[in-house]
UniProtKB/TrEMBL annotation:
PANTHER family assigned: EF-HAND AND COILED-COIL DOMAIN-CONTAINING FAMILY MEMBER, ELONGATION FACTOR 1-DELTA
CDD domains tied to this protein: EF1B
Official protein name in the record: Elongation factor 1-delta
Keyword Protein biosynthesis (UniProt): yes
């Protein structure tokens, strides 16, 4: 674009104005020398040319900036252009048709007796496996739910025979009940309570039943559950 501007005489009007001004000055004053008028005209032309070159440089700079931006946008548009894959449906192989004749031949059971014998053997094997699984399951130990209970057995007073009371508590027996260690724990005013542990099977022995049986003993005033843990 800079070469195009150089080939065109855009400053022609500037030179025409300078020439007109020169001849007008000559016609107005005959005493002025030709050399002075030429110097003034030349100076005027030089100023105009400098101003014009500045203006042209600014225009060219703007044009170059616009050209650079357009080039960048074109590159971005080329990079961002989506890639479209063409699919030729006509070139896809046709689906294979199912050979119905072969299927019809497969439906014909030419060895019916052999199939019946195989089904009987399969049923026998299945029954054997079921029987083995049932036997294995029956011999597997059943998980028994148990609980560890610590009871606080309180007497009526400080004159209660605590040893006799413990013996009477341990006399309570049942399937799924196992008594553990026992000790005397100070209660108040010199009175001690019997703290005894036990293990019960939840399905066979209930805590309410144990409490009722212990409270039925003559030396016992009350029973409290100090701890209850599942095993």
């Amino acid at each position: 674009m800079k070469d195009l501007a150089a080939d065109i005489w855009i400053a022609k009007k500037v030179y025409d104005d300078a020439e007109t001004a020169h001849f007008e000055n000559q016609s107005r004053s005959g005493d002025t020398s030709v050399g002075s008028y030429d110097a003034e005209a030349l100076s005027f032309i030089q100023r105009k040319v400098v101003d014009f070159e500045k203006a042209m440089n600014e225009v060219l700079m703007k044009l170059n900036t616009i050209d650079t931006r357009v080039s960048v946008l074109e590159k971005l548009a080329t990079v961002a252009k989506p890639v479209v894959h063409e699919i030729n449906v006509a070139k896809q192989p046709p689906a294979q048709q199912k050979d119905t004749k072969a299927d019809d031949d497969d439906d014909v059971d030419l060895f019916a007796s052999d199939s019946e014998e195989e089904s009987e053997e399969a049923a026998k094997i299945r029954e054997q496996r079921l029987a083995a699984y049932a036997a294995k399951k029956s011999t597997k130990p059943v998980l028994i739910a148990k609980s560890n209970i610590i009871l606080d057995v309180k007497p009526w007073g400080d004159d209660t025979d605590m040893k006799s009371m413990e013996e009477n508590v341990r006399k309570i027996v049942a399937d799924g009940l196992l008594w553990g260690q026992a000790k005397l724990v100070p209660l108040a005013y010199g009175i001690k309570k019997l703290q005894i542990s036990s293990v019960i099977e939840d399905d066979k022995v209930s805590v309410d039943w144990m409490t009722e049986e212990i409270e039925a003993i003559e030396e016992v005033q009350s029973v409290d559950i100090a701890a209850f843990n599942k095993i």
